[in-house]
Structure prediction request, 143 residues.
Amino acid sequence: MKELLIFSLLAYAISNILVYGGIFYNFRQWIQKKAFKQTTGGDTVFTSTGNPLAHFVYEMLQCMMCTPMWVGFFLYFFLQPITLTVPTWALCHALVAVVYSVMLIPFEILFTGALASGTTWLIHTAQEALERWNKNDDNRRVL
Prediction:
């Protein structure tokens, strides 16, 4: 249970920094320039005729459900120790265990990303609700 909490908070922290953090502001602006091309001189009207990969990254960095999914994919590789427990008494059983483990890896990666996305969305939604409640509470105090 402790590992789930640590994983969820880590995924939320990384996603929040990527989506809202000032440290990545210039990166997000650079990606936006690569993803979109200005259509009218100096105006801020954009069209999505830019780089498709940059467009994908830009759209992903605008969403607090999309970014944690990818953060979860990467956290799977950094937090998951690769251990293959293969019994030494039977080569056939060892081969089946390795094939079975390898077949499960894509599902583990997908579910890790989904877990990161879901828990981050839940924390983010709770944070926004508390901010709205605090804002409403401040407005009532002024009156």
